[in-house]
Write a structure and sequence with these properties.
Elements (H helix, E strand, L loop, with lengths): L1 H26 L13 H21 L5 H21 L9 H23 L5 H18 L8 H4 L4 H10 L8 H19 L15 H13 L11 H16 L8 H17 L3 H20 L3 H30 L24 H12 L5
């Protein structure tokens, strides 16, 4: 069982890379204004995860999620991902002993961290055992995520559950943590390393790390305390936001970009929201601030900036619409907490509401920690 889950998780990673390669082909066509010289496997995996979340919304809205359908989806993506990695394989330069030590240690720590996630069970019986883990089985058995009496269901669209279902189809729902604490951590590593790669044909760039840099990366991977309180979205959210940042980094002219780029940014915003509704506000603010900074640097083309920003916002709602429809059918709320739906805050069992003061104090507590 351990070996099966170990390799199935890596297959899901290849699946993300494969579908991300398809996203790249759709967005950055030869006629595009901007064609990135190099798109690393981490960025393609991030795009693939976002694409998977959009597809998950459509499948849930149609109530056709099944083990067979998801298996075909993973295998097709993994085949494409394998072909992509083979075609983009690097010609490794001659490595010194220090470089061999660095990359051997990186691989060992990453695989150990990944393998640990296979056996890591849920950490919150109040959240996982009665809600988040059963959501996976319910989605696979019924074709959608319908639970009108669950207050945890109304507090999320269901995107993270769909990602966990990709892992659950190979084992059981108790291995769902492999997505957030294993696969997503590997994608985060690829996104960070790929961001510092020198674009162009310099294939030796990823291997020019110093011994000190390599040791620091190992320490970050091994010691960075992810706030895993339960099996909900943590590292998967980090993947989408890192992918959004790197995608914006490729968008040099937001006042008159390739419209396919706007749709890609919108898909990332919708993908973030599908994991947790409050991610929608964070992603929208991030994109808006990026547009404002670019406008401030030029201080012209104001109308074009506004139109492209509105275009992105409307497109993100289109991508999010299937998840909103599913939540409406399940809990009578297309977007919580703007629409309360079946939520009953007078019951003290669980409440997703927080006052503005509590939210501000929560943010301050996080940002004032030495780890941050």
């Amino acid at each position: 069982h351990f070996t099966q889950q170990f390799f199935w998780g890596l297959l899901v990673l290849l699946c993300f890379i494969g579908w991300g390669r398809m996203v790249k082909a759709l967005v950055y066509t030869p006629s595009s204004q901007i064609i990135p010289q190099h798109v690393d496997w981490g960025l393609m995996a991030g795009w693939g995860m976002a694409f998977t979340l959009i597809i998950g919304g459509v499948l849930n809205a149609l109530s056709i999620v099944s083990i067979e359908l998801l298996s075909v989806y993973v295998l097709l993506g993994a085949l494409t991902g394998t072909i992509t990695l083979y075609r983009n394989r690097l010609k490794l330069p001659t490595l010194s002993l220090s470089h061999i030590f660095i990359f051997g240690s990186l691989i060992a720590v990453l695989l150990a961290y990944y393998a640990m996630a296979i056996q890591f069970q849920s950490t919150s019986c109040a959240d996982d055992d009665i809600a988040y883990i059963p959501f996976i089985t319910r989605m696979l058995q019924t074709g959608s995520l319908m639970d009108p009496f669950s207050l945890r269901r109304i507090a999320g669209f269901g995107g993270h559950t769909f990602l966990q279902a990709l892992i659950g189809i190979s084992g059981n729902e108790n291995t769902a943590n492999l997505m957030d604490r294993g696969v997503a951590v590997l994608v985060c590593f690829g996104l960070v390393i790929g961001h510092f790669r020198t674009p162009g044909n310099n294939t030796a760039a990823p291997y020019s790390l110093s011994l000190l840099q390599g040791l620091v990366i190992i320490m970050i991977i091994a010691l960075l305390p992810f706030p895993f309180l339960n099996s909900a979205s943590h590292a998967t959210g980090l993947v989408i936001f890192l992918t959004l940042f790197r995608t914006l980094d490729l968008t040099e002219k937001p006042q008159s970009p390739n419209y396919r780029t706007l749709w890609l940014i919108a898909a990332l915003v919708a993908a973030a929201a599908s994991l947790r509704p409050h991610f929608l506000l964070s992603a929208a603010l991030g994109v808006t601030l990026f547009w404002l900074i670019c406008w401030w640097q030029e201080k012209r083309h104001s109308v074009k900036y506004c139109l492209s920003l509105i275009h992105t916002g409307l497109a993100s709602l289109i991508f999010l619409l299937p998840w909103m429809v599913t939540l409406q059918l399940s809990s009578n709320s297309p977007l919580y907490p703007l629409f309360k739906g079946n939520h009953r805050p007078e019951f003290e069992t669980y409440s997703a509401d927080n006052s503005s003061f509590e939210l501000a104090r929560f943010v301050f507590d996080i940002m004032s920690e030495p780890r941050m």
